Amino acid sequence: MEAFDDRASAESPASPSQPARGPQPLAETRAVNDLMVFHDVARALASSLDLDSILRAITQHMKQHFEPECWSLLIADPLRGDFYYAIAYGEATDPGGALRVDPSQGLAGWAAKSGEALVLPEGEDVLRFEGLGVDAGPSPIRSPVCIPLSWQRQVLGAIELINCPVTSLTDYTLTFLKVLCDYAAVAIQNLRAVEKIQALTITDDCTGVYNARHLFAVLEKELERSHRFRIPCSAIFFDLDHFKRVNDAHGHLVGSGVLAEVAGILKRSVRGVDSVFRYGGDEFVI
What we know:
Blueprint: H1 6-11, H2 26-47, H3 51-66, E1 70-77, E2 82-89, E3 100-101, H4 106-114, E4 118-119, E5 145-151, E6 154-162, H5 171-202, H6 212-229, E7 237-239, H7 243-250, H8 252-269, E8 277-280, E9 283-285
Antiparallel strand pairs: 1-2, 1-6, 2-3, 4-5, 5-6, 7-9, 8-9
């Protein structure tokens, strides 16, 4: 039996069935690189719930492909109905003290309202573009790109790229950007889903206040903080007198309504730094 020599095999000329490959064409190399970008982002989505790190990785890839002077990522706040800056680079997108944006104004507002990408070539008057809601006057913004981050027809945010080189705004790169925006939308939606699940695990179904499981976790942290910073920590434990009579006379459905009403009164009566818990039955802790 002859020994197999890896070096001899590696140095031998390629067989006719396996022709030697020359340098890859530029387009093929770029396609492979772009696939690796999608692979890296998808792997980050599957392995991490750190929204900030995922979104920053996505925007860094956008920077490399489009070379904008400024770029930002805004996320929709479902409670307040506006946008807030999650990421912002450059003077033209610097939010300054205004960290929130009216959904009816600006590039993000237009993209959110229309649900479509906005791409304005260099030379087109951004200030006079219908629906942007920007005051007339000199503007540092030219050739902007704004793409909404959508999930099941719901706009979760928007990505803005400002002052991109015209050569970077091709059909291929814009398609690449839209795919990255879909990844960003998935990251935001995943975080919101996790937050909802976490809220359900620490919330009492009947009253809407925290449950006993969360009480023990919070109490341990509050006591540790109290000892460390030498500040007082107070707890109130109480129950409802004669609550059994309510259940016996009117049924458990009415009794649950009484508990929910009491919990609502407690939540409206305490400070923002205080917490209300249902310990069990008709027992509450503040």
